[in-house]
């Protein structure tokens, strides 16, 4: 199974979720990944926020391209020492600010492809930045990750 082999080296998966947009979910995902990396962990970020892929811009790699290898897509390596691996739909758009206007089945297929076809290699943590709300994309993400070691979830909220 390709999904087993491409996530076989990933020790823990952590979902970052929110009930609404604009609460800082992508910022939390990025900061969490950087904090884990600074503590010596091998970290990847999977940005499945298809309508607002902001993590490439946050990490200043929005101009990078994703390449293919024998086992799938090679994530973009971030930082001078290439310490954080990142996969995002932002790398697949012609222009970073392009809107993604897709119906559920196409979004769900891309999420499944991100889980199965990205060559993550050995990681201590894979942080998954999800879209805001409680949509089909969340169900697709959890279903695709079900066979793997899901550590848990961080729910980002605001005080109001």
Automatic annotation (TrEMBL):
Keywords: 4Fe-4S, ATP-binding, Iron, Iron-sulfur, Metal-binding, Nucleotide-binding
GO MF annotation list: 4 iron, 4 sulfur cluster binding; ATP binding; ATP-dependent FeS chaperone activity; metal ion binding
A cellular component annotation (GO) from this entry: cytosol
Family matches, as Gene3D superfamilies: P-loop containing nucleotide triphosphate hydrolases
InterPro entries hit by this protein: Mrp-like_CS (IPR000808), Mrp/NBP35_ATP-bd (IPR019591), P-loop_NTPase (IPR027417), YlxH/NBP35 (IPR033756)
UniProt xrefs under Pfam families: ParA
An example Gene Ontology biological process: iron-sulfur cluster assembly
Protein's UniProt name: NUBP2 factor
Organism, scientific name: Sapayoa aenigma (broad-billed sapayoa)
Gene this chain is encoded by: Nubp2
């Amino acid at each position: 199974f390709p999904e087993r082999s491409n996530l076989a080296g990933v020790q823990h998966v952590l979902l970052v979720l929110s009930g609404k947009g604009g609460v800082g979910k992508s910022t939390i995902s990025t900061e969490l990944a950087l904090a884990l990396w600074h503590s010596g962990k091998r970290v990847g970020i999977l940005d499945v926020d298809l309508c607002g892929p902001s993590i490439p811009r946050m990490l200043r790699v929005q101009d990078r391209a994703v390449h293919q290898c024998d086992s799938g897509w090679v994530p973009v390596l971030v930082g001078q020492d290439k310490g954080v691996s990142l996969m995002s739909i932002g790398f697949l758009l012609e222009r970073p600010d392009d809107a993604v206007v897709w119906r559920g089945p196409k979004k769900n297929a891309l999420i499944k492809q991100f889980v199965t076809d990205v060559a993550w290699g050995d990681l201590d943590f894979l942080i998954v930045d999800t879209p805001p709300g409680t949509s089909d994309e969340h169900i697709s993400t959890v279903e695709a990750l079900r066979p793997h070691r899901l550590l848990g979830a961080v729910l980002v909220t605001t005080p109001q």
